[in-house]
Design a protein that fits this description.
The protein is α/β, with parallel strands linked by helices. It folds into 2 domains: about 230 residues, DHBP synthase (Alpha-Beta Complex); about 100 residues, Rossmann fold (3-Layer(aba) Sandwich), CATH 3.40.50.11030. Helices cover about 30% and strands about 20% of the residues. The strands form 2 sheets. It has an 11-stranded mixed beta sheet, sandwiched between helices. Strands 12-15-13-14 form a 4-stranded parallel beta sheet, with helices on both faces. Helix 1 crosses helix 6. The longest helix is centred in the last third of the chain and has 17 residues. The relative contact order is 0.15.
């Protein structure tokens, strides 16, 4: 399979090149093919969510296990209503506040949603992307688009078309290249049905923002033993896409640093000294003094500690760059769990988790 790379300027979708690229990508989706598309979070690998065979091509391309459900992207509330049997009372308020945007709602599925999308679960994850290219592609295709991240299963998520092609070139039909994604971490996943409502994956819409709209919420923290086995839960029982799994992982071993800001430099130095003889990458926020390191250590700056949205935007790109430089280990400080820092922590902790089978 030859993967088409279709360039689109997201600032002006009226340009002939943009119109033609989106029209071709929409045609591929309607015909049952796969298209990687930019969203405001990361690049997703899209297929017609109502076509079981098309969705199966996502699983094949990503080497994704069939028990892991997929989020569905829509362009408009009417498209979402086709996929949902009922809306819990808070769902409409959340849609009004955060759609289009990076919030996924777990809602009771209608009979229109194939089992393969939800892995047989009764809830389907739905969101309406705010990225102009993603929204226009879905609108032009006229079908809801199932789209997990456009990378091989468990690998670091892609925030550029180059990242997509590094994993999936020759495995998918096309990628719409609209440059880097603006947020850099995936959507927040929330179940509005229980009381209190539950966040299963922190993301670009923060818990604080959600509380300001609907009040109390619970953040479901995974309870994982040291071996990463999630207390022997069967993976088929996990409640949400990406929950309880080793995800977002570079090839290199990821070494995380938990420390107050003033101690991060010294803790990084200690961690690096414990990796003597290995090619080591260090992800260091701007403004921190780089510790004295030997020439085998590569320092990659990745945003300001007091501007976690910058760190989120650069997170996956930094991990991929250090992987590409053949680092055997990557040392990375973990930000406090406030705002989007909670999403960065979630991704780093999952990326550092040991790979296990279940």
């Amino acid at each position: 399979m030859k993967t088409l790379r279709l360039a689109v300027d997201p600032s002006d979708l009226t340009l002939p090149e943009a119109r033609n690229a989106i029209a071709l990508a929409a045609e591929i989706l309607r015909a049952g093919g796969t298209v990687a598309l930019p969203t405001e979070t990361v690049y997703g690998l899209g297929a017609n969510a109502l076509d079981e065979s098309a969705v199966a091509r996502i699983f094949t391309a990503k080497q994704r296990p069939s028990w892991d459900p997929i989020i569905v992207h829509v362009a408009g509330a009417s498209m979402a209503e086709r996929l949902v049997s009922e809306f819990p009372a808070p769902a409409r308020a959340l849609m009004d506040a955060f759609w289009p945007g990076p919030l996924t709602l777990l809602l009771p599925r209608s009979t229109a949603v194939p089992d393969i999308v939800t892995a047989g679960r009764p809830l389907v994850g739905i969101r309406m992307p705010s990225h102009p290219v993603a929204f226009e592609l879905i609108r032009r295709a006229g079908v809801p688009v199932a789209a997990p991240s456009a990378n091989l299963f468990g690998h670091t998520s892609p925030t550029t078309a180059v990242h997509v092609l590094a994993d999936l070139d020759g495995r998918i039909d096309a990628v719409l290249d609209a440059g880097p994604t603006p947020h850099g971490v995936e959507s927040t996943v929330l179940d509005p049905g229980p009381n209190p409502m539950r966040i299963y994956r922190p993301g670009a819409v923060t818990a604080e923002q959600i509380r300001s709209v609907i009040g109390e919420i619970a953040i479901v923290h995974e309870i994982a033993p040291a071996d990463g086995s999630l207390a022997h839960q069967p993976l088929q029982s996990l409640p949400s896409p990406g929950f309880g799994l080793r995800h977002y992982a570079p090839r290199a071993r990821l070494v995380l640093i938990e420390a107050d800001q003033g101690l991060i430099g010294s803790r990084v130095s200690i961690a690096v000294s414990g990796l003597a003889g290995k090619r080591v990458g260090v992800m260091l926020p701007a403004g921190f003094d780089a510790p004295v390191l030997d020439e085998a250590v590569i320092v990659r700056r990745w945003g300001k500690w007091d501007a976690p949205e910058e760190m989120a935007r650069e997170l996956y790109a930094a991990l991929r760059e250090l992987d590409a430089l053949d680092c055997e280990a990557i040392v990375c400080p973990v930000p406090p769990p406030e705002g989007i820092g909670a999403a960065i922590r979630d991704r780093l902790l999952k990326a550092a988790r040991p790979a296990v089978s279940n």
